[in-house]
Amino acid sequence: MSIRELTANMSATVLIVDDDPGARLLIGTALEMAGFRVTTAADGASALDEFRARPVDCVILDVVMPGMSGFDVCSALRLLPECVHLPILMQTSLDDMESVNRAYEAGATDFSSKGINPMLLAQRVKFLVRAKQTQDQLRESEARIRYLAYYDPLTALPNRARLLQILEQHVAWATPRHRGIALLMLDVENFSRINDTQGQAVGDALLKEIANRLQFCVRDTHKPDEKPGNVDSQEINDWVARTGADEFALALPGVATVDAAQLVARRVQLALERPFAFAQQEIPLSASIGVTLFPGDAANAEALLKNAEAAMHHAKKSGQTGVEFFKKSISARAAKHLSLEADLRKALERQEFSLHYQPRLALSDLRVEAVEALLRWHHPQRGFVSPDEFVPLAEQSGLIVEIGDWVLREACAQARRWRDAGAPKRQVAVNVSGVQFRDGSLVRRVSNAIDLAGIDSRTIELEFTEGALIEYSSAVNKAVKSLKDLGVATALDDFGTGYSSMSYLRHFPIDTLKIDRIFVRDIASKKAGNAPLVDAIIAMAKSLGLATVAEGVETDAQWQYLRDRDATQVQGFLFCRPLATADLERWHADWLHSHQMRIESVA
Ligand code: C2E
Ligand code: MG
Ligand code: MG
Asked: What average pLDDT does range 400-426 have in this prediction?
């Protein structure tokens, strides 16, 4: 017998039920020799008592006993919940088929005749116990699989699939009672950035703490009109679920009005606003919350979940973290997004994308130093779709990685065509989304596109937004360094719209800041609200050794203002709109011509 078998048997206890003391002794000794622990009972009633007091791993049961027969004891044992899978071996001197059948009917696992060699019997018990242990393990892993299908192992909260079942039960409970349900869904802002910068251990701890706090925001008591223990008492509890990486939901049966739901939403916000303390650091959090109400907004669980998600995305998009209640207009928009997303999947294949180019001019002499490649989607039915509409969709679905690859290859190929045609030398700036940094393959993709086109890597500049830098800071940091080694320049787009500080920027070896057009818009107006900000950005960029590009220059006054402040480049409709390549060449030829005139006229 191996050590493993020995220890397996050692931990197993067998109960021998027999009115014959000689039989108990013989079998008991054989079992102990085989490594089992043994307990005994002389009749059925004390066997049941003994089992209740100390459950065992196997029972050997004599059939003919005074008082309860072995069959009765077997049936009684099977009624106990912990006995459902217990191996019960019945011993009968009545070798006939009828008692064998009765034994099985009573629930016996196996039977043997009474005269069997006790050593052989011990082997049989060993087999039964081991089979049970294997089955127990199997049942355990099945239970674990079932658990994982419906629960989140990190927080032990129900997952999305389980939430759907819970909501179905809530709806079934609320409908006949004319009661309402509120469903809140929340997205933790900036969670991926925290995970990225602080490490997964902190991220996990944070999620657990969020789960904890959320559970304090809900009631776990039963409603007063339901007696505890009622069949549906469980279903009418409030529930917290984890529906995504940084998404949670609160299902609140009985919460029927906007005011009541608003109250809970506020409670949730307050709970998350208290800073989370980890490793001597305080991490403040905020959440965007979407709310939907049953039965007003939807009549079934699935629609409720979709509504809450749509409202949450709406809350997230609106910029300020806040609470958004579901409205029909949100679901119409969600439906439009879905169909647009489906079309977006086909757009690459159908060659519906193209690139337009908008010049960036040196502020000093108005020479075209670079052009920014801007993606255009010509939808077969809808016509032109704005990148402001489809780029976020492509980001959400991950399609941006493939589309972004196309943009990179096409922009590099165009740079090559310009070189071959002897066009004026200019850098080509390509926009990349934060999502493209996520899997760490961006630098390889950029370098492939450059090699494929056979151009100098210094021709290419990548623009990414301040938002991308904040959300994927560690991936961006790594990529920017490798891009620098590769000779590819980088620019921070839409600067001023995020919340990164100048000192934060020091960690990223970027080359250029692009000042967002909302700041440029009113620099030269009477209000001039943003002028000091633009001045500060230009001055600080200079101190960090960064170039500046002012975006969205539309008026002469704005241009003059920037010229006095010594920004590096300007870009905007005042000079040129984004154009298809042929138009761009025509414009550029004209520009060179008139530009000379202009310089002359200024001089
Ligand atoms: P962006 O990178 O900040 O691009 C500049 C946007 O400002 C362009 O809008 C451009 O047409 C517009 N613009 C330029 N000058 C002026 C002006 O004087 N006044 C006004 N009002 N607007 C001006 P567009 O082409 O609609 O692109 C919008 C955004 O979509 C881009 O903002 C960029 O974030 C994104 N995008 C465009 N192409 C791509 C791409 O290939 N990949 C990625 N990831 N995003 C892209
Ligand atoms: Mg850009
Ligand atoms: Mg921009």
From this structure: 95
| Tokens linked to 416 | 């090559």
Q: Global pTM?
A: 0.60
| pLDDT (tens digit per residue) in 359-400 | 999 998 899 999 999 999 999 998 999 999 899 889 988 899
What 3-state class would DSSP assign to 386? coil
Q: Where are the domains of the chain?
A: 3-148, 160-326, 348-602
Q: How many residues does the chain have?
A: 603
Q: Residue 461 and residue 369: Cα distance in Å, rounded?
A: 12
Sheet holding 110-113, edge to edge: 37-41, 13-17, 58-62, 88-92, 110-113
CATH no., domain 348-602: 3.20.20.450
Index of the ligand 1 atom closest to the CA of residue 578: 11
Give me ligand 2 centre to Cα 325, in Å.
Answer: 33
Q: How many Cα atoms are found within 13 Å in the side-chain-facing hemisphere of 32?
A: 10
Pocket of ligand 1 (CB under 6 A): 358, 374-375, 386-388, 391, 404, 407, 431-433, 463, 493-494, 517, 551-554, 571-573, 578
The two beta strands, 489-495 and 569-570, are unpaired
Residue 488: CA count within 13 A, CB half-sphere:
28
Q: What letter would DSSP give residue 275?
A: P
DSSP string, 527-577: S-TTHHHHHHHHHHHHHTT-EEEE----SHHHHHHHHHHT-SEE-STTT--
Q: How far is the CA of 578 from the centre of ligand 1 (A)?
A: 9
Please say if the pLDDT value at position 225 is more than 60.
no
pLDDT tens track for 490-523: 999 988 776 666 667 888 899 999 999 988 988 8
User: Which fold does the domain 3-148 belong to in CATH?
Assistant: Rossmann fold (3.40.50)
- For residue 182, the CA-to-ligand 3 centroid distance in Å is 40
